[in-house]
Amino acid sequence: MSELVSRWAGLALCGIGLVATLALAAAGDLTLYIHPRYVVFTVLLSIVGAGLFAAAVWVTATRRETAHDHDHDHDHDHDHDHDQLVRRRSYRMLSTVVTGTLVVVSAAALLVAPPTTLSAERALSSASAVDGGGDVPRPSLVGSDPTRFSVRDWASILGSGATADDLVGQQADVTGFLLIDGDGAVRVGRYAVTCCTVDAQLFAVPVIAADLPSDLRSGDWVHLTGTFADDGGATHLSPATVDAVEEPDDPYLS
């Protein structure tokens, strides 16, 4: 049994990964984990990997049991050392259980569990700055239509030091998920993905909590329109309309 598991566990994990990747691509859910520009590359690489996987399965299934025969003879020659034999068998049994568990858990996580986006809980554990940071370009308000700005655009503008006085008359129209921390502070946020969700970056804009319906919860997706106002010395979005919406098909900003 241990010999069987040791021979096939690695291939099983590879197969699970390939099936999960291709299934996500077929369902259109691969963009929940990687940037859209890498989807075609990932699918092509998975197809090539599937061919190599099939070859590896064939080689593994047809190769001779030389190593197995050697181990059997070795154990027979040393059966007088009972303690050593027991330890070896115990180690093999433990290795088999651990490896088998890893395969089962991987299959459940990748093939059974439904695909999900990054959660609001993860966002709440991130830095609370409204600025996206790095080299994110900050859009100019001059000659632009601010209603077309995303959460990232407004977060970058606010992060550059813009105040409510600078944003007088500027109408925001954004969609994102609510982030409500333990102190009751509210932000509307969205993740931006450069390569994959491992490098996902949170962009969020503070919202005046008193202007929101009381039945909304952290993690709810909303569509907000409104203007910016001074709220206790900080510039926050004062929503004129708040509509609960479904999570969009493309939840991440590209």
Write the layout of secondary structure elements.
Elements: H1 2-27, H2 39-62, H3 66-77, H4 82-112, H5 120-124, H6 151-159, E1 172-180, E2 186-192, E3 201-207, E4 221-231, E5 234-244
Antiparallel strand pairs: 1-2, 1-4, 2-3, 4-5
Structure description:
With 254 residues, the protein is α+β, with helices and mostly antiparallel strands. The chain folds into 2 domains: 1-64 and 85-112; 120-244, OB fold (Dihydrolipoamide Acetyltransferase, E2P) (Beta Barrel), CATH 2.40.50. 42% of the residues lie in helices and 18% in strands. It has 6 helices and 5 strands; from the N terminus they run H-H-H-H-H-H-E-E-E-E-E. Strand 2 (186-192) and strand 3 form a beta hairpin. The radius of gyration is 27 Å and the shape is elongated. The two termini are 48 Å apart. Residues 66-79 and 128-134 have low confidence and may be disordered.
